[in-house]
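Hey, quick one: can you model this chain's 3D structure?
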Amino acid sequence: MNQTETNSTPSDDHLLEHSYDDIQEYDNPLPRWWLAIFWATIIFTPLYILFFHFGPGMLEIDRYDEAMMLATEKQMAAILAMGEINEGTLVSLMDDPSMMNGGKKVFVAKCATCHGMFGEGGIGPNLTDAYWLHGAQLMDVYRTVREGVTAKGMLAWERQLRPAELLAVSAHVGSLLGSDPPNAKAPQGDQVERLAPETVAAAGEAPDDTEAHSETDPAGV
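Sure thing. Here's the predicted structure for all 221 residues.
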């Protein structure tokens, strides 16, 4: 072996003791740039989780839902200007996953304090059973959310929510009927059947059962 070959061959100290198929492996350190990236990802991961899952950051699905909410808001603003909001409008929103996700987020942020995370009731009434204080039809729900029940302490949310958010959260509340959550509050109000949109349209408007039944009843839909 000449001197050139000797200088180009790593020292035997770098050889690992094991071998596979008569092939020995050199114990060489990883490149520093690779190690730098490796440690950077370890440091970045908890910061990412804290910012996007527990902080102000928005995940891609949240950005998408927000974009869809803004797009729908423009559409709904035009519909509101023409006075065309009806039972069918709210039913169609219940088939839109983005709007329902947006409505659920609004409900959790604004309504769950009184009505429970799953609509099971708390300070306010249970939103999942067939008993209603202010009307069972979807337009009744929308009107109650929009105008509030000031005598019972429920805010008029039209002053704090965008039009699309009002529609989305109303549709979400409508979807809670029959969901049977745990620890549901006892029924309040009258048992009223929710009618199909075409039945409500044929009747002209939803039955008027919006009067409160007791001064001690909590605020709610």
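One thing worth noting: Strands lie at 15-20, 23-26, 131-132, 190-191.
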